[in-house]
Amino acid sequence: MPYQMSLALDLSFSHHQGRWRLPGSWEGRTFPDLRMYTELLLAAERGCLDMVFFGDGSGIPSTYGDSIDAAVEWGIGYPRQDMSPFIAALAQQTQHIGFGLTYSSTFMHPFYVARLLNSLDLVTQGRMAFNVVASSRGADAANYGFDALMDHDARYRRMEEFVTVCQELWRSVDQDAFVWDRETGMVAEPGRIRPIDHAGEFFQVKGPLNSVPSPQQAPVLIQAGGSPRGIRASSTFADVVFGGAFDNGDRAKHRAALDEALLEQGRDPSRVGILWDLQLIVGETTDDALRRKQQLADLLPPEAAAAQFANNTGYDFAKLPSRFTLTELTAEVVAKQASPMGFRDLVNEHGADAELSREEFFESLWKVATGYEHTVAGSAAEVADYLEESYEATGSRGGFMVAHPQVTPRDLIDVVGLLVPELQRRGRFRTRYDGTTLRDTLGVPAFA
């Protein structure tokens, strides 16, 4: 029997970047209507998807033109909500599907986050995952009192220590510590609850956690670092890695680098899967899917696309000179402790040393901002062929994160109604949930 893949649904941007107004989206309902999420979760659970995932950011993008105006006008990474109360409500309407929640290790405190995730894992009956991020956006930093971004390596050191503290706190209370003995009145055994006495570079935490252990004891840990430093960090703690590569060759390189790093940490690479970022459109026919993909061309005006790219890279493209090369621009972005993510597509299109005008650069941005070049569009059989090929080329471990569907609920309905049955027919996807926790669903080892 072929290995079965995981499928998760990324709802981080389902209402951003103009998606909310395309044909097939809701009418009469707008973000953050809980009924919209309830419908999506119930549909995803009918399709036996592993989990839904919520990325986050706590600032309004303001990199472009040093202003929030473009982001506010065009819905670029805005608005957002803290999804933890939504998850608590949605867990009461579902039974099996997991929930991925994002918090920043750069700005948050590990005791608060560890306690919150513990509570959510109790409320969801063991269906939580924690996406740990090292933040690189100035708008977020400004809301937490930072005048500038923390340098790249320090962000990752802080993230590693942050996770260590969370794990120590989750271990500080044994799973069988609470006895609730009516005869003696004993609530918990003192010897099974211990302070952690953590003193590190960034945090001092006494502990222990003052909470009842959750079904998983610790949520599934997700991390998305794709740089050499990020891969090294994810190898130390991630149960599941979120991969941003799109080409099978690049995916295989990421998989090989992660495997090497895991072995150095004494961890079994076969137990750590990668969920590859994937934008897809499943049509009843190939022509139908390609026609809908073409709608992305009119999704964003040039200014909005530039604002999105500026937010993702941390560089103000409103200040571009009239002419420049991508090599020069990449060097400037890196020098500002920002991220050159997304430049690869532009380099592939134009060449690293090709000189571009500001107007030519902006004209190319919509493809990057909308993910047009990486959107897989086709019939259910064609998309299933692509998934199988990529899954096997990258080690048959993990699966795919269907990223911010172009249109909700239309594209999720097509995934559940067209793609999932095709994958099930091929033996590539489950037909029912086994186990009770998200760790069971993802095949992640128990927390130890």
From TrEMBL:
<keyword id="KW-0560">Oxidoreductase</keyword>
<dbReference type="Pfam" id="PF00296">
    <property type="entry name" value="Bac_luciferase"/>
</dbReference>
<dbReference type="InterPro" id="IPR011251">
    <property type="entry name" value="Luciferase-like_dom"/>
</dbReference>
<dbReference type="InterPro" id="IPR016215">
    <property type="entry name" value="NTA_MOA"/>
</dbReference>
<protein>
    <submittedName>
        <fullName>NtaA/DmoA family FMN-dependent monooxygenase</fullName>
        <ecNumber>1.14.-.-</ecNumber>
    </submittedName>
</protein>
<keyword id="KW-0288">FMN</keyword>
<dbReference type="InterPro" id="IPR036661">
    <property type="entry name" value="Luciferase-like_sf"/>
</dbReference>
<keyword id="KW-0503">Monooxygenase</keyword>
<feature type="domain" description="Luciferase-like">
    <location>
        <begin position="20"/>
        <end position="395"/>
    </location>
</feature>
<dbReference type="GO" id="GO:0004497">
    <property type="term" value="F:monooxygenase activity"/>
</dbReference>
<dbReference type="InterPro" id="IPR051260">
    <property type="entry name" value="Diverse_substr_monoxygenases"/>
</dbReference>
<comment type="similarity">
    <text>Belongs to the NtaA/SnaA/DszA monooxygenase family.</text>
</comment>
<keyword id="KW-0285">Flavoprotein</keyword>
